[in-house]
Amino acid sequence: MNAPLLKLEGVNTHIGPYHILHGVDLQVPRGQLTMLLGRNGAGKSTCLRTIMGLWQASKGKITFDGQDVTKKSTPDISQAGIAYVPENMGIFSDLTVRENMILAARGARSVEDIDQKRLEWIFSLFPAMKKFWEYPAGKLSGGQKQMLAVSRAIVEPRKLLLIDEPSKGLAPAIIANMISAFRELKQTDTTILLVEQNFNFAKQLGDTVAVMDNGKIVHRGLMAELAEDEALQTQLLGLSLNAHQ
Prior knowledge:
Blueprint: E1 4-15, E2 18-29, E3 33-38, H1 44-51, E4 59-64, E5 67-68, H2 74-79, E6 82-85, H3 97-104, H4 116-125, H5 127-131, H6 142-153, E7 160-164, H7 172-186, E8 191-195, H8 199-205, E9 208-213, E10 216-222, H9 223-228, H10 230-237
Parallel strand pairs: 3-8, 3-9, 6-7, 7-8
Antiparallel strand pairs: 1-2, 1-4, 4-5, 9-10
Helix pairs in contact: 3-6
């Protein structure tokens, strides 16, 4: 495996009286797409939010690109090169697609301030963004909103993308578009940590995989190896990946 860009060591997270993460150890290899799988309530979303500083780790260490970011603020973590796409997408519904993109680009006051070659590249990944450029984001379909959320995250080069269930509730054609876009993203220098419940999506995209259960990482390895081992899938996830083709 490549050297880790992101490393969690013994990370615990409490939310009020609830102890959600219990000593999470996780490595995200540089330049790869790591799938974070697990049953509902296993702690996957909490793990992403803790990495992003939205919830502070109560114990343990988070290292990103050689820097300890455990106690850093969310803006500082973003400035270090991490973008986060939450499950609720985090877009501004009352603003147009164009305005959402301008806000996501640091220091941009107009479209002209965005790298035009990068913007055209994003349009090639998600043609709907160009088509609905002046539409209010709240009027987009669910799939188009997800495309906008990912587009916002990549409007500037990022070292790491944290993406929470990008295929949730999407039609098969939109999921296929997402898979194609993430495959192209994998060809760039971007490292991706992706939470997903659609196991066929995970199998097609993942290089490495970590499985969470009850706030801990219970399995690490290559995605291809997990995809071929139905007994292990059932043990870790309750159902085989093939049941979710």
